[in-house]
């Protein structure tokens, strides 16, 4: 180590060409984790754009594509193929342009492009803004306000929920959206940079729009649902491992193994089972969707969640983000240690 505290390669001085070459080799390892750190910071400071959000425009485009393709025959096979075409028309041009721009852009432009794309793909602060009011309303014994707030983030009927049911819905949504709105984007960003985060966020948005098992979307939305499951498969399991690592690990893994296979969603099951086990609360159970009562499997172990558990679930997601950001710098640290 130099008198100023800078670490140099063995036998290399501050102006040594070997040091400069080492710095050049290290930069690619630092680019993505630094971009992720900046994007997470921007999301924490500003949240999602209040006006002119790109996803609002994307949603309108997707609606237009759907309307255009639905003018054709309504046979099931056609609707399935139309759904595939609609997904491709909505997603691939944007991802393709992002990949092209990133491939031709100089480093000074590629870096902000990655940061902006990941910033728009992240929804951690938006999740906090939606979840905290639910906990606050329950803490103030304002059940009507809590029902109204939780109704903004879940698709189940919330008009008759009691306090434990509101807290359960909020915790479930927090854990699941931790995977969908945060860790999935970070995973694909680590693989493909900004275009990867964009791909995941657009696919997840189309699943939210079209991925319903009802008469309208059972066939048309099948591609959107399946592709979202595929893109979210690995991130969801890494998210579940993250929840386990930051809480009651053995209990979380046991709940994952026993309970996740019983859940309809291949990705939500591991995430919510591991999250519930990590927090030591019971989730799942019957819920009303579109007027129909559904008997959902039990998740986790322990008492019913409370307002405090909603905040604990949110804190679990936030600690997970920190863990992933630290993990992003590990390759650079290992490389630096080997060449120090």
From TrEMBL:
Pfam families: CobD_Cbib (PF03186). It is a multi-pass membrane protein. It comes from the Bacteria. It is found in: Cell membrane. InterPro entries: Cobalamin_biosynth_CobD/CbiB. Keywords: Cell membrane, Cobalamin biosynthesis, Membrane, Transmembrane, Transmembrane helix. The chain crosses the membrane at residues 20-42, 80-101, 181-203, 321-337. This is Cobalamin biosynthesis protein CobD. The lineage of its organism: Bacteria, Pseudomonadati, Pseudomonadota, Betaproteobacteria, Rhodocyclales.
